Amino acid sequence: MRAIWTGNITFGMVTVPVKMFGATEEKRVAFHQVHADDGGRVRQRRICELDGEEVPLSDVAKGYELPDGDVVVLSEEDFEALPEAVAKTIAVESFVPEEQIDPIMYSKSYYLGPDKLGARPYALLRDAMAASGRVAVVRFAMRERETLAALRVRDDVLVLETMLWADEIREPDFDFLDSKVEPKAAELKMAELLIDSLSTDFDPADYHDAYREALEEVIEAKVEGREVVTPAPPAEGGAQVIDLMAALKASVEATKKTAAPSASKKTASSASKKAATPARAAKGARGTAKTADPHKPARKKPAAKSTAPRRRA
């Protein structure tokens, strides 16, 4: 695994150098937007709404919009000016019973591993927390914002659970909460029996994503059936890369294929003309000889058999 953050856990006078790693990953089938006809990627462009020009990524900044519509533009230097101690320190605020933290507050999980010189203080904090049965409420800076988190022990590893702030959790506001709806005693008893019949120990391995598995089967079937599109490689700026030599070869081959039938037709036509000319000359000569006497008509060569009925003179 690749570390995504490095810093120190501080509690009291103890400092624990640690590295942060992603503890979870979402298993899902990822799609791109593509052109249905040729499979080419459809990409979004960064367009400035004021001048209509495309903005390079290097010119993109973060802006905070004020109520009156004015914008405060923040540069990378503004964020780099944040105190380094805040950005690299996981400060323990307190240790609390884990059951007092509502799971709705948890956001994302990370593993914390000890740095090279932090193995001993890391083990000290881990074992002391495991013995106490409590979790540490901490705060630290990550991705340009201060984050609240809970630090707990799982499988001999410290796990950091990022948390939402109290004002980020919405209060449920539903009309039915104002009305008093009470189930009947018989209905409640039956529901409790149903819950008892479905009660068991939780095993994560018993559950799987049936939709993702079915979707992967559909994709695999299309791959096996060669129902795939191979788009041309894109060039910088979105244009297609043109291999000049390949294009020239393709053009030559296409020209050969087009020229070959034409040449054959011309050769056949020339040969036909050459063969027909002496015959016509001979025929003409014979006709001239036979029709030398204007009072005696020439005898014509019998015509080819035809399916059409003959007309009598």
Describe it.
- With 313 residues, the chain is of the alpha+beta class.
- The protein has a domain at 1-23 and 83-172: Ku70, Chain: A, Domain 2, CATH 2.40.290.
- It has helices at residues 76-80, 84-87, 119-132, 185-197, 210-224, 244-290, and strands at residues 5-11, 14-22, 62-65, 71-74, 89-97, 106-114, 134-142, 145-154, 157-163.
- The strands form two sheets. It has a seven-stranded mixed beta barrel. It has a two-stranded antiparallel ribbon with strand order 3-4.
- The longest helix has 47 residues, at 244-290.
- The protein is extended and about 85 Å long.
In short:
By secondary structure, the chain is α+β, with helices and mostly antiparallel strands.
Shape: extended
Q: Any low-confidence stretches, pLDDT <50, length ≥5?
A: 237-242, 271-298, 300-313
Beta-strand content: 15-25%
Distance between the termini: 104 Å
CATH topology of the domain at 1-23 and 83-172: Ku70, Chain: A, Domain 2
Q: With helices defined by DSSP (H or I, 4 residues minimum), what is the helix count? A: 6
Biggest β-sheet: count, sense, barrel?
7 strands, mixed, barrel
What is the mean pLDDT?
78
Structural class: alpha+beta
Approximately how much helix is present in the residues?
25-40%
Order of helices and strands: EEEEHHEEHEEEHHH
Q: Regarding CATH, which class of the domain at 1-23 and 83-172?
A: Mainly Beta
List descriptors:
313 residues; alpha+beta; Ku70, Chain: A, Domain 2; seven-stranded mixed barrel; two-stranded antiparallel sheet; 6 helices; 9 strands; 31% helix; extended; disordered C terminus
